[in-house]
Write a structure and sequence with these properties.
Blueprint (H helix, E strand, L loop, with lengths): L8 H17 L4 H11 L1 E3 H7 L5 H13 L3 E6 L5 E6 L1 H4 L2 H14 L12
Antiparallel strand pairs: 1-3, 2-3
């Protein structure tokens, strides 16, 4: 690898926490999936499919599984006909909600100043 400022040990060490966060929430849909589950408290697969315009069923399945494996969401399977699966937040994710809300406010102020957010009470 070419020598640059990010290969220096002290710089690399500072990047580790952000690198870890990025690896967990990376993915085109993960932030939105987490946002909808945060706002609605409980989401079913079909509800997320309708809200995430353009996502494929396989991509949603993959990203939900990754979020579950990383400890951000809990999947509850109800043994009934037809089968029902609900997604909720874990306590681990709930500690991140203030960060997510701050990201939304910053985005509204700097990237979408004309947007009126129906999810936040002003």
């Amino acid at each position: 690898m070419a020598e640059n400022k990010f290969t220096q040990e002290n710089t690399l060490a500072r990047c580790v926490p952000m690198n870890k966060l990025q690896s967990v929430i990376a993915g085109k849909w993960k932030i939105l999936i987490l946002w909808y589950i945060t706002f609605y408290k409980v989401q079913r697969f079909g509800e997320l499919m309708r809200r995430l315009d353009g996502i494929t069923q396989s991509t949603l399945t993959k990203q939900l599984r990754e979020l579950e494996n990383d400890g951000f969401i809990h999947r509850e399977i109800y043994k009934e006909i037809p089968p029902k699966v609900e997604y909720t937040l874990t306590e681990f994710w709930e500690s991140f909600i203030p960060v997510l809300q701050t990201m939304m406010v910053w985005n509204e102020q700097h990237l979408c100043p004309d947007y009126k957010n129906p999810y936040l009470n002003d």
